Every structure is written in structure tokens, then in C-alpha cells.
From TrEMBL:
NCBIfam families: PME_inhib (TIGR01614)
The UniProt record lists the keyword Signal: yes
Xref: SMART domains: PMEI
Molecular-function GO terms, alphabetical: enzyme inhibitor activity
Domain Pectinesterase inhibitor per the UniProt entry, residue ranges: 25-170
UniProt xrefs under InterPro entries: Invertase/methylesterase_inhib (IPR035513), Pectinesterase_inhib_dom (IPR006501)
Name of the protein in its database record: Pectinesterase inhibitor domain-containing protein
Keyword Signal assigned: yes
Lineage: Eukaryota, Viridiplantae, Streptophyta, Embryophyta, Tracheophyta
Amino acid sequence: MNAPTFLILAIFLCLFLPFSSQINAESDLIKQVCSQTTNPSLCTTTLVSNPKAASATNFVTLCKAALVSVIINAIDLLSYVDNALFNDPKPELKEALETCVKQYNYAKGSLESSYMEIDLDPLTANYDAKVAGDGYTYCEEALARTKVGDPKLSAKNKVGLDFVSIADSATSKLPN
């Protein structure tokens, strides 16, 4: 190997190898979080598709990015139920949907509190993320009591709980 070729190869390796190990470290963070969720596939897809999560080099950054995704999901679900109420729901579902709006507002507030606590109090951040799931559970219980239910909303509740699981797992990795 002649000197210019060796020099180019050496420069390439010096530039690429540190970047390569950085990618593996980031993937390891996401794997550690997603392996402890209720839906690892959804978690991985969500975090890898989020540029801030995918480029996170520590759990604090990853946690913040993950919580933003989870809060967006909660807002989308709240909007879905608000629209269902606005569009004159079946009378037997109206009370359950009103319960769901209250519970989703609670869940969203809990997730927002979790985000605000990340740097200040990681244990409280984890607690707030974990209890956000109660809102989805109480909504589902209200739907079940109607005896007619709403399969589409129940499916969205399940996904919402999977997103809360991402927040719970991510915040559980924060340094104390």
C-alpha cells in the first residue's frame, strides 16, 4: 500500500470509527429503553424516527425526546375524543367520552409534569410518567361500562398505554 492510499485510509478510519461507535451507543440507549416497554417494536419505531431521540447520547436527552413523542400522542388522542363528542356521539357513549376527555387531560398533564421534572427530580418524573397510564385505564373502564363500547377508541387507548410505557421506561433510566 503506497503512502497516499494509506494516509487516505487512516484519515477515513479516524473519522468514521468514532462516528460508528456513537451510532452504536445511541442504538444501545434506545434498545435499553424499548426492551422494557409493553410494545418494543412501537417504541423502537417511535424513537428511531424522532431525530432528537435517535441522536441522543445520554438518557436525559433520550427521555426528553421520548416524552415529547408520548405527549404528542396524548394530545392526538384527546383531540380524537373531543371531535367524537363534538360530532354528537351515541347517547350511551356520551358520558364515557366525557370521562375520557377528563382522564386524557389528566394523563397529558401528568406527562407534561414528568417532562418538567426530568432535570429536577428524576424519581418524580418517573412516577408522573407511570401514573399517566391511569387516565387511559379509567377511560377504558368507562367505555366498558356502556356495554356498547367504542372499538376504535379502545384500540387507541391500547396504543396510548404503549406510549406511556415508553415514558415510564425512559424515565426509569434517568440518573438519580
